[in-house]
Design brief:
Shape: globular
Largest sheet: 8 strands, parallel, barrel
CATH class: Alpha Beta
CATH topology: TIM Barrel
Number of strands: 8
Order of helices and strands: EHEHEHEHEHEHHEHEHH
Helix content: 40-55%
Distance between the termini: 15 Å
Radius of gyration: 18 Å
CATH superfamily: Divalent-metal-dependent TIM barrel enzymes
Amino acid sequence: MTMFPSACIWTCRTPIDETLRQIKQTAFHYVDVEPDTLNAPAARESLKNLGLKVSCVALDHNLPPGSALNGKGSMGEALDYLKRALQKAQDLGARTAYLGPCSDRRHLNEFRSAIAELAEHAAQKKIKLCVEHVPGRAIPTAKEALAFLNGVNHPNAFLLLDIGHTILSKEKAWEIISAAAGRLGYVHLNDNDGKKDRHWPLLDGRLTVDVLKRILETLNQAGYDNTLGLELNEIRPGVMTAFAKNRNLLLRLQAPVEPKSMKEPELRRKQ
C-alpha cells in the first residue's frame, strides 16, 4: 500500500486559507496541524471544500506558558490542555497525534504516567498517541523512545519516528522500524547536516536516495499504514516548492514497490 505524504503546515507563514489552497495545488491530500491551526471557521470550511484531510496533530505545540509534563505544579494544566487538544484532533478527523518528551530525565517517571493517561484518553477517541524522540531532551534517541514506551506498557502508546532526528543521533532508521514492529505509529521526514535539526527538504543534507529507499521499503515490509509527515522549514524559493518536490520524490520511490497502489485516495474509494 502506498504511503501518502502529509504536509506539516505549521511551518508555513502565509494566511491559513492561502496555505491550504497552495497545499492542494501541490497535489497533497493530507495535512498535519497544530491544535489551533484551524480554529477559524473559515479555515475548516476551506479544508472541507478543498478535500484535504487532517492526518496528524502536534498536541504539545503552543502549550500554555509554564505548563509541562514534568511532575511540577504545572503538570495538571498541561494534561488539561493536551486532552482538549485530543478533542480537537478527534473533531478534525485525525487518526494520529503526538507530543515530544519532557526536557529533564529526572521527570521521566511522571512523564511516563502522563503518557499512559493520555494514551487511554486518546484510545477512547480512536486516536493513536505517539511520543517523539528529540535530541537534547529526556528521550534523545529512537531506541530510548522504544524502551520508554515499553515501560508505559499501554496498547495505544506508539513511537513517532523522526528521520531527521535519527541523522543527529546516528541511528539507522530502518533498524528502528524493524525493532518497533507494532509500536510504530507515525513517521516524520526531513533532512539536516548532521549537526542541527534544520528540517531541510529531503536529500538536501545527509540523507541519500539509497537510505530513503531503504526506509520506505522497510516501512512497507513492516506494514506501516499511515501517512508520512513532511516537516520542512520555510525556505527560499519557498516551502511549497520543497513540499511539491518531496511529495513527488516519495511517491516515485514507492512506485517500483507496488505500482497499482499509486492511485490517489479518492480514486481508490470509488472502486
